[in-house]
């Protein structure tokens, strides 16, 4: 049996030093790979900045655009004809809010209802993570459809907001407005769409949505019919397109996506 070689204290010391050196080399190699990955990411963001696809929000971090505030304004028909789909609407709205929360993006959401002579603010510019589930008590359909009044009031309330998405849900045509008429609303929608890059989305049921929306200034791609029987599925789809739209951080890029909410 071969005699085990006995190492001198110097040899043990040298071996320990070599192990420590190997660990430090491995550690720095991993750090170098991390830096190289970060470099590639920054190079891509630099190219986006040069092309105008990415505009910084005032700080020195190219990734700061992920924290950009996105405003979503919902104008919900609460007229009597919506009674038959009351539960569908509540479930669909909760589906929409849930998906926006899951996106981990920064949203400020406003919700308004209109029906009969009532125009109600449910909440205004509320952070998406602070929005609770809607219940039956939050949505009680009744009365006529003052669509023009609701849209006009919402635009006036939020006229200083930059590039919001304004989503209008209704199952019927205008029949009860007192303050605004067709010309008022079509002019406002056209002006705010072109000059301020507001995105107006029209979702209609029991109607020719495009016929009713196009004359008001809505684009074809931002007009769609929602299915009464499966409103949650449509709201899930709308949430996905909302997230895609808001993932574009700057005016130039968002302008390219306007009118694509219902594009297949």
What does this structure look like?
The chain is α/β, with parallel strands linked by helices and 264 residues long. The chain has two domains: 9-43; 69-257, Rossmann fold (3-Layer(aba) Sandwich), CATH 3.40.50. Helices cover 43% and strands 16% of the residues. A six-stranded mixed beta sheet has the order 3-2-1-4-5-6. β1 (70-77), α2 (86-102) and β2 (107-115) form a beta-alpha-beta unit. 30% of the residues are buried.
> Whole-number average pLDDT?
83
Strand content: 15-25%
> What would the CATH topology of the largest domain be?
Rossmann fold
CATH superfamily heading of the largest domain: von Willebrand factor, type A domain
What low-confidence regions span 5 or more consecutive residues with pLDDT below 50? 55-66
What share of the residues lie within helices? Answer: 40-55%
Q: Helices and strands in order, then pairings?
A:
Blueprint: H1 9-51, E1 70-77, H2 86-102, E2 107-115, E3 118-127, H3 147-157, E4 165-170, H4 182-195, E5 199-204, H5 209-214, E6 223-225, H6 231-246, H7 251-257
Parallel strand pairs: 1-2, 1-4, 4-5, 5-6
Antiparallel strand pairs: 2-3
Helix pairs in contact: 2-6, 3-4
Descriptive labels:
about 260 residues, Rossmann fold, 2 domains
Q: What is the gist of this entry?
A:
The chain has 264 residues and is of the alpha/beta class. It contains seven helices and six strands, in the order H-E-H-E-E-H-E-H-E-H-E-H-H. The chain folds into two domains: 35 residues; 189 residues, von Willebrand factor, type A domain (Rossmann fold, 3-Layer(aba) Sandwich).
